[in-house]
Amino acid sequence: MSWSSGKDSTMALDVIRRDEEIDVVALLVIMNAAVDRVAMHAVRRALVETQADRLGLSLNVIEIPSPCTNEVYELRMSEAIDSALADGIELFVFGDLFLEDVRSYREEKLAGTGISPLFPLWGQPTNTLAQSMIDSGVKAVVTCVDPSHISASFAGRFFDANLLADLPASVDPCGERGEFHTFVFDGPGFSSPIDIEVGEVVERDGFAFCDLRPRFG
Question: pLDDT tens digit string along 100-146?
Fold first, then answer.
């Protein structure tokens, strides 16, 4: 399962796990090695490790430098594909929703490798999908915002009905065009919620990031 730590990945995982013919064995996450956080979502490694534990899955991490060229990214992904093939993996699941260029890129890179891509959420209307995520029990916090699309004040907010109501009409309800990214701390398949602390919001490299920390004890 290609894993971003966010709501789309969580919903796609829930859908694919209902297929009794498919056995999901691991989460594959891309980590910014310079800061030890999920790329773009800016989620700490410890939180992603806890997600995997709550979901009963192993975690496979691809570390990339920052900044990262496309050549380096594709090399790391090629290594991950080779490793997956060696482990008998036949399918990669993605949480993409409607961006044709993203889907085509994934299909192109997996063509001929022996691993096929799956897109269980593809083509679903994102306004109804966003509400379905909330109705299914997905609990998430907005960790990254692109201020060129929505106010930085959305960073740190919970992904709920109030947030959907406050989004500008021009913004996709699932943030599929990169308007915002999330971290899921509870939802379908989680054995128990992850206890988190919502920290400060900082603006860096043209984005607003909300720091989340695991709460222990």
Answer: 999 999 999 999 999 999 999 999 999 999 999 999 999 999 999 99
DSSP string computed for 51-68: HHHHHT-EEEEEEE-SS-
Q: Which helix (H) or strand (E) holds 212?
A: strand 207-214
The pLDDT value given to residue 177: 97
pTM of the predicted structure, to 2 decimals? 0.96
pLDDT of 215 reads 86
Domain locations along the chain: 7-214
CA 73 vs CA 21, 69, 70: distances in Å: 31, 6, 5
Of the candidates 89, 88, 101, 69, which has an alpha carbon nearest to the alpha carbon of residue 2?
A: 89
3-state secondary structure of 92: strand
| 126-135 helix and 7-17 helix, angle to the nearest 10 degrees | 80
Q: Which helix (H) or strand (E) holds 93?
A: strand 91-93
Distance CA 151, CA 67 (A): 25
Residue 217 pLDDT greater than 90, yes or no: no
* Angle at CA of residue 179, ends 178 and 185, nearest 5°: 85
